[in-house]
Amino acid sequence: MDKTIQVRQRGTLTLPAELREKYGIRSGDTFRLVDLDGIFVLTPMVPMVPELAREIEQMRLEAGLTTQELISSLREQRETYYTEKYGAESDEPDQA
Fold this sequence. Notes:
Layout: H1 17-23, E1 31-36, E2 39-44, H2 49-63, H3 67-86
Antiparallel strand pairs: 1-2
């Protein structure tokens, strides 16, 4: 597709309706603009938190862990990391 777009006041660009429909672009979507020596590339910024949460949940289920076991293990690992890095136990109360 070859379309001409115009930069408007305050740098606003309007993407052609066909592209917005084709790629499901909605008002408020966020993009990263990459400048390749004068060639501009727009890349959608996909929210990663929901995808990461799904991956963590899948791994938890595959490992057969309960949510409480996962949280407890994470707290233990955090305490071990803190002790190794700072040579002392953290002041955080144990919430296991």
